[in-house]
Amino acid sequence: xxxxxxxxxxYLKLPPTHLTHFYNILHKTLTSTETEYNKPLVATxxxxxxxLFGLDLPGSTLFIMDAINAVTAVLNLxxxxxVTVPRVEATTLLASLVSxxxxxxxxxxxxxxxxxxxxxxxxxxDLVLAVLLDGGRKEPAGIARCVALSSLGIFLVxxxxxxxxxxxxxxxxxxxxxxxxxNTELVARVACDMLLLLSYFVPELTEYEPTxxxxxxxxxxxxxxxxxxxxxxxxxxxxxxxxxxxxxxxCMNLSLDDLVKKDAQGASLIGKVFKILQVVSTGEVKKIQKxxxxxxxxxxxxxxxxxxxxxxxxxxxxxxxxxEDEEAEESSVTAAAKFVMRHLVNLISNFPSDVNxxxxxxxxxxxxxxxxxxxxxxxxxxxxxxxxxxxxxKSTLLTVMEMQKRDISWPIGSSxxxxxxxxxxxxxxxxxxxxxxxxxxxxxxxxxxTIKRSFSxxxxxxxxxxxxxxxxxxxxxxxxxxCQLQPGEPLDVPVEMTxxxxxxxxxxxxxxxxxxxxxxxxxxxEQKTDFRLTVGRERAPQYSxxxxxxxxxxxxxxxxxxxxWETRHRIHLLKKTEKLLRELKHLDMQSCRExxxxxxxxxxxxxxxxxSILSNSTGSSSxxxxxxxxxxxxxxxxxxxxxxxxxxxxxxxxxxxYYCTSTLEVMYHVSTRMPSExxxxxxxxxxxxxxxxxxxxWSEHYRTYRRGIIPTDFANVIIIIYPLECGLYRIQIDKxxxxxxxxxxxxxxxxxxxxLPVLIRCTAVNASRIHRLTLPHFKPFFQVRMVCLDxxxxxxxxxxxxxxFTAGVYAPSLADQDYLPLAAASLETEQAxxxxxxxxxxxxAGFSFSVGNTVFY
Length: 857
Description:
- The chain is of the alpha+beta class.
- Among the domains are: about 1-120; about 165-350, no CATH class; about 590-780, 3-Layer(aba) Sandwich (Rossmann fold), CATH 3.40.50.11210.
- Helix content is about 40%, strand content about 10%.
- The protein is built from 28 helices and 18 strands.
- Strands 16-7-3-4-5-6-17-18 form an eight-stranded antiparallel beta sheet. Strands 9-10-11-8-12-13-14-15 form an eight-stranded mixed beta sheet, sandwiched between helices. The protein has a two-stranded antiparallel sheet with strand order 1-2.
- Strand 1 and strand 2 (about 120) form a beta hairpin.
- Helix 5 (about 85-95) packs parallel to helix 8 (about 140-160), helix 7 (about 125-140) crosses helix 8 (about 140-160) and helix 10 (about 185-200) runs parallel beside helix 13 (about 240-255).
- The model is unreliable at about 290-295, about 305-320, about 460-465, about 820-825, about 840-845 and about 850-855 (pLDDT under 50).
- Keywords: GTPase activation.
- It comes from Bugula neritina.
């Protein structure tokens, strides 16, 4: 009762005499843990003292050592009923001290031996961390273990931002990695979220130890294999998806050199990742040897109290039991594995692009640069003779179109290109991509072949290559480094002669070459006098550009092997109908990344009603600095990424904070960024903020923020930030009962100013994810795209013979009509034209692909 009365967030300040008597009782109670009779009293006091260090009470830091000893005693209580012991409250009280050492340094605390003396407690970080590490290893209560793991994640972030290298840093990461293998989904998910948080600090981890990030990724791969090899249909597979996306983010943040570097067994890191992802996508777990590293016996992975028994949050919605739900889960896991693999192939080392990071896919569509009057997707594009659509491997849509050359620059030196360009639009699980291709011809004049009468040996040091060939080889090496035979070595430099060629063999080769030269000269002289071998001079055919449509695309498809018998079962034509057009528009509207929108509300001192809060047009300097740390400002009129419901006409403000990665987009609805002059403006602001599922409230008021101040049926999670006078920030989590636990921030956490924005952003994203899992019919973005692709393949794919398919490629505009025999009849004419082109004076030709600023040959 006394603790409830004194530890309240209220405007009434306790009188000094009252506070002194409370501190005296508190100190005596917390230090009376040696007697068994007093331990229940200590446990009761700990249960109601979680806000001891979060209310800025004067002198409250004196009880740090008392709190550590009391929490340790409570967590060591032996009880047949774990619920009766305040394990969650005790862990929360101790976890709130994680940020204190770096912020305060050495502080004075009350001594355990005497009540009126003080000692320096610069080592209390080690004491707090030791108890939390033990909780992460052995804590029997599920929510208490989640709080311990979340506090360990906060500790790691604080250490990296402060540039500290604590001796227990490696042990802390190891606890998170081991907890990833936990048999309870919620605990494993929290550990996965903490590891995902660490992936954004790869430079700091590399500075701590260069091989640390690679070891973390390898351990995550082993944990993923452990989960898929032990998970049955009765188990929930959402944690497998979380681990795969955690693995994806680590790979995206690591350098390409670290990913391709091979270990002692000759295996690269990216190879291990793709191997386990292939197993998840196909379900062939037995093909990989089970990864079962020996973990310390200190980690209790099996015997833990049920999470549901430690919280009032119903977990039923997270565990499906019907056959339809099980099939949907397995389909989602398979789609996630395929998405992660394709995402790595498409975007690794390519994100962010040199243009912007708000788009990971092209904005080009079929209607762009095509010789039609349409400016958007319409039925007219299907009538074009220069466009054909395919489905490849039942999972990828290809649009191959031919365009007249416009202002397309090809850095190819003295070579020339034809008057048309081929473009390929690719749609798959990860988005929409485009690539341009054209045929490159070398400017070479053909002439009669003659034999020189005399030869001289060429100096080996001279350049044997033509200047145009050297230029093309140099350009290939610069624009496409993966084509280099050896890293860092140009392609236009001849390979040095090996030491195996001796001088004797060299002389023999020279002698043989001289003899062969003399034989050729003698034979040429004899043939000139033999009238039977004298013929007229043949003239090289002259080049004439073809006027047939879709010629370049046909050549491209043929050279890529799509017109062969072997690949016939992998590629099919699509029925170019209005239904396909609608499905393509629907597919392009689906997000290629996970999207979230969060409300950020500023509450000034003395504000307790909706009108005053929504009328704020500015915030304090601390609030504005916090908002700047959440993301970066984007101009809503030109922003190309996720808008979060905001309009481009500035009716919701000119700018807004925005954050994104290659798999995530977050738009913040900041209350002070939106207009608030009129009642209509405030109504629009309330409509946007009220419809958000996650609210982040910055409260400088002296009273606790109440849920009903902003009336809404949403706001399933409210994360409230209370600035403290000491420079730290206390966090309050107000969530609806159906929302399970999430981290890294928890109710009662205290963090520093430096780590506050990144921890708030990560907590809000995790809260949104865990809330969506409670929705009965929720599907992640990649599964929605997979459903759209499967529907297009099922409804619009044309199952045709090889002859009909080939004729459709030669005459795209007739592919959906009854004139395919006419298209097949044009094959002979087309072959004759191509023969003339191949025998023309422009003797050397090859395709060049351009994606962005990169050209591929």
